[in-house]
């Protein structure tokens, strides 16, 4: 257990914010796997301020997902503050997170948001302290190790963030220019942990029990955050949490559980999205869930042609029958 401000987080495994993935449906599944804190996908400060329906719809949360952190990205103090107040009022998240790590050009270059903020320590201080003052919930910040290899500054940035009043920091141990290439740098994560006294959450390349254990032990961080590792494999959360709590290794999911999860995930998506959008999103998730099963490649092609939930469910039911008969 650890605490972010006054919020008790019941274990030390956290879901990473992932744009286009971490909506209410996915977060509910991850919570069902025992995850203690979920980060919602980022929302744009300007999207909220200009009343974009699409952005506001992203703030939907169901009670079973709590505690939840909502992440905001932006580049100006005023719009950040305004957006944070709106998020607090509309969604009532338990935590508000500030994105200082997004590497995609649309965010980090065109809007000078996300990881671009790492280049302006003064601005970091201004944004974090203004948001902390403006809302009543704890504020966290998610950073990368720096902008590029010549400007690795996460430990200094972390100190500024702490002094500005943030309640925790997540560090993804890669620079902006690395994107997702190379390996996560656990040394820089360790240095961040050593440079502040607020909780630090370590992030990057956690895909199994071994990497979870190594990251926690090597960095001394308070918690770990998992992103890509749970795509198509939400069971990883349960596997890691069970291991960290008891040393026990639970069995891997069967093909039946994987296909049943597709139905479960689709049903949750249908509760929050139009059928068209739910099916489009589910095409990607379903192909991740079945990855590696016998004949999955052929089924994936069929899945990507499905346009209705019935079609998608039929493809998956037939596939389950084929697997039951042992192809
Ligand atoms: C599809 C995708 C979307 C992401 N969206 C966000 C986001 O909205 N906000 C953010 O801070 N990081 C985002 N990230 C980065 C992840 O939160 C995480 O830092 C990164 O994937 C490294 O962790 P991992 O190795 O466990 O995936 C995204 C990553 C992926 C793969």
What does this structure look like?
By secondary structure, the protein is α/β, with parallel strands linked by helices. It has two domains: 2-246, TIM Barrel, CATH 3.20.20; 255-324, Putative flavin oxidoreducatase, domain 2 (Non-ribosomal Peptide Synthetase Peptidyl Carrier Protein, Chain A, Orthogonal Bundle), CATH 1.10.1200. Helix content is 47%, strand content 16%. It has helices spanning 24-32, 45-49, 53-57, 77-91, 105-110, 121-134, 154-163, 186-195, 209-219, 235-246, 255-272, 275-290, 296-303, 309-324; strands at 2-4, 7-9, 13-15, 37-44, 68-73, 95-100, 139-146, 168-175, 200-203, 223-226. The chain has an eight-stranded parallel barrel, surrounded by seven helices. The protein has a two-stranded antiparallel ribbon with strand order 1-2. The longest helix has 18 residues, at 255-272.
């Amino acid at each position: 257990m650890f605490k972010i401000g006054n919020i008790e987080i019941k274990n030390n495994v956290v879901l990473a914010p992932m744009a286009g993935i971490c909506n209410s449906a996915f977060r509910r599944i991850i919570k069902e796997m025992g995850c203690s804190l979920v980060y919602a996908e980022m929302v744009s400060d300007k999207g909220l301020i200009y009343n974009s329906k699409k952005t506001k719809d992203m703030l939907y949360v169901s009670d079973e997902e709590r505690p939840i952190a909502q992440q905001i990205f932006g580049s100006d103090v005023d719009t950040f503050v305004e957006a944070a107040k709106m998020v607090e009022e509309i969604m009532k998240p338990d935590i508000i997170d500030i994105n200082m790590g997004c590497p995609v050009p649309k965010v980090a270059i065109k809007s000078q948001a996300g990881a671009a903020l790492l280049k302006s320590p003064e601005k970091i201080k201004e944004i974090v302290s203004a948001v902390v003052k403006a809302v009543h919930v704890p504020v966290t910040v998610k950073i990368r190790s720096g902008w590029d290899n010549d400007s690795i500054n996460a430990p200094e940035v972390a100190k500024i963030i702490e002094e500005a009043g943030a309640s925790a920091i997540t560090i993804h141990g890669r620079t902006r220019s690395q994107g997702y290439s190379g390996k996560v740098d656990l040394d820089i994560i360790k240095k961040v942990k050593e440079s502040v006294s607020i909780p630090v959450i370590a992030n990057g390349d956690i895909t199994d029990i071994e990497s979870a254990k190594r990251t926690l032990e090597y960095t001394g961080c308070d918690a770990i955050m998992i992103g890509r590792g749970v795509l198509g494999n939400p069971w990883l959360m349960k596997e890691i949490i069970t291991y960290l709590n008891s040393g026990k290794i639970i069995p891997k999911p069967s093909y039946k559980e994987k296909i049943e999860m597709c139905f479960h995930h689709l049903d949750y998506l249908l509760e929050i999205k139009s059928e068209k959008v739910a099916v489009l999103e589910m095409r990607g998730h379903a192909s991740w869930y079945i990855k590696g099963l016998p004949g999955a490649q052929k089924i994936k092609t069929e899945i990507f042609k499905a346009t209705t939930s019935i079609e998608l469910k039929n493809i998956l039911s037939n596939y389950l029958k084929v697997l039951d008969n042992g192809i």
